[in-house]
Amino acid sequence: MKFGIIGLGYVGLATLCGLAKAGHEVIGVEKDQPRLRRLMSGHAPFHEPGMSEVLQDYADSITLTDNTADTNDVDYLFLAVGTPSKEDGSCDMTFVDAALSEINTKQKIVIRSTVPPGTTDLLSIMYPFHTFAIVPEFLQEGRALADVLKPNRVVIGSENLEISEELAGIYGRLGVPIVCTTPINAELIKYASNAFLATKISFMNDLSRLADKAGADIATIADGMGLDPRIGRSYLNAGLGYGGSCFPKDMNALLNVAAENELDLPVIRAAIQANDEQIAYVASKIEHRPNLRVAFLGLAFKPGTDDMRDAPSITLANHLRLREVEVVGYDPLAKWEYRQALTPEEALKGADVAILVTEWDELVNLKPEAFAGMRTKRLIDARNAWKYARDPEDVEYEGVGRMQGKTNTPSSK
Ligand SMILES: NC(=O)c1ccc[n+]([C@@H]2O[C@H](COP(=O)([O-])OP(=O)(O)OC[C@H]3O[C@@H](n4cnc5c(N)ncnc54)[C@H](O)[C@@H]3O)[C@@H](O)[C@H]2O)c1
Question: What pTM, to 2 d.p., does this model score?
Answer without folding.
Answer: 0.95
